[in-house]
Amino acid sequence: MSTTTETSATSLLRFATAGSVDDGKSTLVGRLLHDSKSVLVDQLEAVERASLSRGQDAPDLALLTDGLRAEREQGITIDVAYRYFATPRRRFILADTPGHVQYTRNMVTGASTAELAVVLVDARNGVVEQTRRHAAVAALLRVPHVVLAVNKMDLTEYAEPVFAAIAEEFTAYAASLGVKDVVAIPISALAGDNVVEPSAHMDWYGGPTLLEHLETVAVVGDPSEEPARFPVQYVIRPQTEEHPDYRGYAGQLASGVLRVGDRVTVLPSGHTTTVAGIDALGRETDIAWAPQSITVRLAEDIDISRGDLIAAGPAPTPVKDVTATVCHLHERPLRTGDKVLLKHTTRTVRALVKEISYRIDIDTLEQRSGAEGLSVNDIGHVVLRTAEPLSLDDYSANRRTGSFLLIDPADGTTLTAGMAGEAFASVPGTDAPDAPSDEEDWV
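RESULT FIELD:
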């Protein structure tokens, strides 16, 4: 495969929206769907009826995304709302994430697979704490592209200096987090300025509208530039008369390209062998690329089970001491000494929280050491000890095989989202301490 930056009706962009409460995020999403003609007639009629019942003359486009009763009553977004829409140039999957600080954890869910994040800012308030938090989460999750949408420009009389000051402050902060691609766009979601159509009120702005940028941003990479990583999900042994000796390993190719004849390493055992065959959609093929679901056949019979990783090229070294940056998602704090389950790709192992090295202050990016635990929405650095070796890539190199979840072994509750390695690409003073070498008896 070759790299391409061209967009077409078959290309897909996954993006997430984030912003503080009352920044107009739901209105922006509704405007984007409405003006791109991605709203069905019956949906629009339902929104018009709901708006009239509230005494509003014009349709409240925020109701297109705020579907929960509690969301409409409070005027805030609570849950992540996923929306699919398409234009002649590209298809989109949009994750509309909550803005309230209480639901910051939901942004982690929405942005974990996003290739672009739209961070919304109220032009009257500028960059606030929640703006910085959302930028930090986007940087932490290594979202490649960030759009700063400066909303409610109509309430500042479309003043260019207001936009310029906010864009400069946010871009500098994002750069300190290691975010390399930031595009700032002045908009008015309520009036429709620069969302889908160019604004007649801001002739000083010569950049793209939000939709134009979403349609043209280059997100199609070359899978061959990534190392091949294939987590085994299921072992197929039919043992029938037609397939008496068939042994295949089924799963989804997490990254890279896998070819028949490739030399691969099976982890954590370290055995090496060759790819003898690849089956996809019931047919044999010579090549597969992420994120295809395939069945891999190997030249040698090796003891492989669910949770093992088949890697081509440079393979990660299996480790039991895991250092990672995490975002805690649950009201129940994460504390040193907690026993958890660690889920990495298709593998789940027991683990112990050996150390909470520090918590990251989102306002200053300073490391607050001495924390006894991490509370909900906290971002921090931890050291974990696992009962079995894990084959993790650094998250900065591979988002799929560098991420994991911490789970409560008692009730299966998801506690924490983890990213192996350091937090941000270029923040000074974020070097984590070496992992302790002492063994824990229980693991």
